[in-house]
């Protein structure tokens, strides 16, 4: 019943969001088109529920620049001024509302990370995929990249074990507060964040939920 209600809220919320934000979406798309050309939307395969792969959508924020060897230049070199603004305000995440409508993502849940991380999770960390990935989540309102990877993943697993509609509402409310304040709003974090290499002899800090239970 709770899963059905969550899906209904996701579908209604994302659909309303796409309608209400139609003009901002069109403006951002036009600006990205003018500064970066096509494609306007960045598509990347990410793991979803139970690790099933899906194509996630975001507005492009970086140029496709490579060195002489064909390797991508660092993010801080490739990102545009518009891209920095979109990331700082999380406007680059708006196309993910389409993923929510399609049932591939939820408004709230563990962020869908890179496919290459799948084989690096411990069995406990892998349980983060027992929930539908979200646009925002517990880790995003609890320090984001200021926490270690282990702590962020521990927050994801905590969410899986304690998920409820009321918890989702509180996470959404705190996400809005952070968006208004302009702090801790980028879902995927700062530029050039070290990649997750796996857990090695590290005991994560007991997760703080960021919400009163």
Written overview of the protein:
- By secondary structure, the protein is mainly α.
- It has one domain.
- Helix content is 39%, strand content 9%.
- It has seven helices and four strands.
- It has helices at 2-20, 22-36, 75-78, 81-89, 96-101, 149-162, 165-181; strands at 41-47, 53-59, 106-108, 134-136.
- The protein has a two-stranded antiparallel sheet with strand order 1-2. Strands 3-4 form a two-stranded parallel ribbon.
H/E element string? HHEEHHHEEHH
Mean pLDDT: 87
Across the major sheet, the strand order is 1-2
Q: How would a crystallographer describe the biggest sheet? A: 2 strands, antiparallel
Which class do the helix and strand fractions yield?
mainly alpha
Residue runs with pLDDT of under 50 for 5 or more positions: 185-189, 201-209
Instruction: Domain count, please report it.
Output: 1
Topology:
Elements: H1 2-20, H2 22-36, E1 41-47, E2 53-59, H3 75-78, H4 81-89, H5 96-101, E3 106-108, E4 134-136, H6 149-162, H7 165-181
């Amino acid at each position: 019943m709770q899963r059905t209600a969550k899906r209904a809220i996701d579908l209604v919320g994302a659909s309303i969001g796409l309608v209400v934000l139609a003009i901002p979406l069109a403006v951002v798309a036009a600006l990205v088109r003018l500064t970066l050309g096509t494609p306007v939307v960045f598509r990347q395969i990410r793991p979803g529920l139970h690790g099933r792969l899906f194509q996630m959508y975001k507005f492009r924020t970086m140029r496709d620049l490579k060195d002489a060897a064909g390797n991508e230049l660092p993010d801080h070199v490739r990102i545009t001024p518009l891209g920095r603004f979109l990331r700082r305000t999380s406007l680059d995440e708006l196309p993910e509302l389409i993923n929510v409508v399609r049932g591939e993502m939820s408004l709230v849940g563990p962020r869908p990370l890179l496919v290459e991380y799948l084989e690096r999770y411990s069995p406990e960390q892998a349980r983060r995929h027992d929930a539908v990935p979200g646009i925002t989540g517990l880790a995003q309102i609890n320090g984001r990249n200021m926490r270690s990877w282990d702590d962020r993943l521990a927050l994801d697993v905590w969410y899986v074990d304690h998920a409820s509609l009321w918890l989702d509402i509180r996470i959404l409310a705190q996400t809005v507060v952070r968006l208004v304040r302009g702090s801790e709003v980028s879902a995927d974090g700062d530029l050039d964040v070290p990649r997750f290499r796996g857990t090695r002899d590290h005991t994560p800090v007991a997760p703080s939920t960021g919400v009163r239970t």
